Amino acid sequence: MEVKRYTNNTIAEIELPRPFDGHGHPRRDELLRLVGPMMAKRFASGIVMPNTKPPITSRLVASEYRDDILHSTDHRFSPLMTLYLTDTLDPAELNEMRTWGIYGVKYYPKGLTTNSDSGVFSPSSLWTPGTNAFNVLRKLAEEGGVLLLHAADGFDKNNNELDPYDQEPHFIRESLPRVKDAHPDLKISVEHLSTAVGAEFMFKNGGYKLGCSITLHHLTKDRRDVFRGGFRPHLMWWPIIQPAEHKEAIQALAIADKRFVWLGTDSAPHPVSSKRADCCMGGVLTHHMALEGYVEAFEDLGALDDRFERFASINGPKFFGFPPSIKTITLVREDWTVKNSYLTEGLQEEIIPFRYGETMRWKIQD
Ligand code: NCD
Ligand code: ZN
């Protein structure tokens, strides 16, 4: 990473290969038209989540969605597509997946997050031979694709409903080892790692076959922020933002310079009526400031150096099996204020972005 400093040694400017977003929800139609330029401004490429309405369950639909994203980003962003793992996804959809621009399959536990109704009913089908999910994962390993895990369980082995704060730890302890053992050749990415249990598992087991993405919100926010003065719907994501000790464990993992850890925003915009609602939807827009926020976070952690470049631009592409961008991006130390909301032509409702109204101290040089 190229760094320019002021005479007092404070970093004034950084230049790095254009980053990769390991996990994004650019949505479709009007929302995509809002989000596309935000992604293209910050990222060379990114993994696109398939939980649209309806979900992306065939390579034909994936390639139509890919075209829409290319159009919305003026071809300045490479969308790396994923298919939604359902109990009926046809393994043949993965034939020569890379030639269709498909890099992986996303596992959603049924009902545990936004648009997850089509998700896999029973997590055990991931490791039980003969199930449809098992056959898809076999095929995925053969094709060299990645299994992306929404690493959460809804129930324990006695069928008791889990506390939301325990969903990820339970999956990491009980389900992930079984998935790994059942599919030793499969590359697995644990998405939006959010707990100390997850971080410890990664330190022990991360490598060429197992990695994880880290969001900006799990890196910088904790449960105190979510409930300060009352519930803050614009800090509500799945997986849920954990108590501070988990955030600290995620921070330690992010700056530990491990090749199996990379940036993944989980930017997930929802119209304001879905956030200020009886049942607040999980997910918030971060594509409007994500890279600037990660730079700030790494600086606050004393790690704004080559570790940041590897986290943001190198590790993800290497894991997914393509070269890092040869283009660069420059960020300068300059204050700017996040908008309170976005409302563009065609959007029926406002989108309230992450850190609305707050001052950012890093800016992308146009
Ligand atoms: C995501 C969404 O809104 O699509 N929401 C979220 O809270 N992260 C779904 C997801 O990635 O789980
Ligand atoms: Zn997501």
UniProtKB/TrEMBL annotation:
GO terms for biological process: 'de novo' pyrimidine nucleobase biosynthetic process; 'de novo' UMP biosynthetic process. GO terms for molecular function: dihydroorotase activity. One of its GO terms (cellular component) is cytoplasm. Transmembrane segments: none annotated. This is Uncharacterized protein. It comes from Candidatus Kaiserbacteria bacterium RIFCSPHIGHO2_01_FULL_46_22. The lineage of its organism: Bacteria, Candidatus Kaiseribacteriota.
